[in-house]
Amino acid sequence: MQRLKCELAYDGSAFSGYQIQPNKRTVQGELEQALLKLHKGQVVKVYASGRTDAGVHARGQVIHFDTPLQIPGERWSVALQTLLPDDISILAVTKVAPTFHARFDVTAKEYRYLVYREQAHDPFRRNFAYHYPYSIDIAAIKAASRHLLGVHDFSSFCSAKTEVEDKVREMYEIEVMEDGGFLVFRFVGNGFLYNMVRILVGTLLQVGAEKIAVADIPAILAKKNRIYAGKTAPPQGLYLWKVFYESCITTCPGVK
Amino acid sequence: MQRLKCELAYDGSAFSGYQIQPNKRTVQGELEQALLKLHKGQVVKVYASGRTDAGVHARGQVIHFDTPLQIPGERWSVALQTLLPDDISILAVTKVAPTFHARFDVTAKEYRYLVYREQAHDPFRRNFAYHYPYSIDIAAIKAASRHLLGVHDFSSFCSAKTEVEDKVREMYEIEVMEDGGFLVFRFVGNGFLYNMVRILVGTLLQVGAEKIAVADIPAILAKKNRIYAGKTAPPQGLYLWKVFYESCITTCPGVK
């Protein structure tokens, strides 16, 4: 038996999210189906760094699973890709220690959220970014972001449905940049709560629209109540970009 | 009654092509359905610059139709967009002379074909470009392209199913460039036959793979028979980019 770590990308448009559900098309469901075939009917359970919601994409999701199969490392990607639908792509498969855990060993995650601002609706970006054709005060968004850096209780910025008790997380970096025709929000932190990035982006866009003041952000955090933050931005702009397992301070590119 | 010219973009992924067909989802079908609603049940036929096949995209398709409705010009885009699915986008609607015809008045068309060459399959580009992760001799492709410029009988470069008699067309420009992570083939000509761009790209890629010699292109043209050209590249890389109605020599950007 060996443990494999697998990095994958997926277009979330046609999935009911990452997590397996009966009678729904899910990323986990497709992965376990492919592994079932590869293992001739033997069930192989996969463990991910975390879930993603319906319509949310991944550029660097990470899973692990245990297998008795002796397939050379470089052949694993091809073997899995062959059995998977083409909206999932296997980026790398590597052998890891039997103690490695895709979820529990996460040291940081990077999410990105893409917005396009042109007036006209773009059929080629409709599933891959949020169409927000309104004026935005980028400087205000950046100023508001600074209040969100560091260690905070992010209760105001997660869905009321969140089940975890401890809502304290550390935000290492928030970057707001123009890239390839998109306004990109980049978040790196040690952990993210349910809907947290989408609520952060929704709130920051309202700051950019001068509907929430920059100076209100600390007060919103202090309330520890979802109703005080802004809207939840839609899922199609969100990407789980990268999952880090190393000591983040020294090895994550771009983390200040 | 007035005649309107309408420019539109569409993601061809979920359409059985442009042209209306019974029990299929088509771009023309969606447009005529939207116009039927807008005209309270009165049938309005649309005329396009030409068809596009299933899976083929448009950045600048042009249609015309006649309407008795008195809607101010700038409101037309919104009125139509509201009634259309989000994989079609209305870019502009303008009043034209009653003699204008979206198909018969075309003076030139520009098509682009996008290829991505990274080793790994990309789930975000699978419907929007052709995955060709092999080595390519770009200089050979450019040299071969030069043989295709000018006036030729393109019988070898169109589907055997092509119904038109006269297969002589003039190719004004072929450009092969790297742009935004894609290898882009750009074709501007006075007219294109059925599957012509896809066969041109398939053949040029085989030239790039050294399976067809640059010097063979004139001979392939001279044969006037589809079986001598290369493969038909798949539909998802193809975009009807722009349709020209002016005297092309003086007004088309990029035409040499």
TrEMBL record, chains A, B:
The keyword Isomerase applies. GO terms for molecular function: RNA binding; tRNA pseudouridine(38-40) synthase activity. Belongs to the tRNA pseudouridine synthase TruA family. The gene is truA1. The active site is at residue 53. Formation of pseudouridine at positions 38, 39 and 40 in the anticodon stem and loop of transfer RNAs. Substrate binds at residue 111. Residues 9-105, 144-246 form the Pseudouridine synthase I TruA alpha/beta domain. InterPro entries: PsdUridine_synth_cat_dom_sf, PsdUridine_synth_TruA, PsdUridine_synth_TruA_a/b_dom, PsdUridine_synth_TruA_C, TruA/RsuA/RluB/E/F_N. Gene3D superfamilies: Pseudouridine synthase I, catalytic domain, C-terminal subdomain, Pseudouridine synthase I, catalytic domain, N-terminal subdomain. This is tRNA pseudouridine synthase A. Keywords: Isomerase, tRNA processing. It is an enzyme of class 5 (isomerase). CDD domains: PseudoU_synth_EcTruA. Pfam families: PseudoU_synth_1 (PF01416). Its EC number is 5.4.99.12. One of its GO terms (biological process) is tRNA pseudouridine synthesis. Homodimer. It catalyses: uridine(38/39/40) in tRNA = pseudouridine(38/39/40) in tRNA.
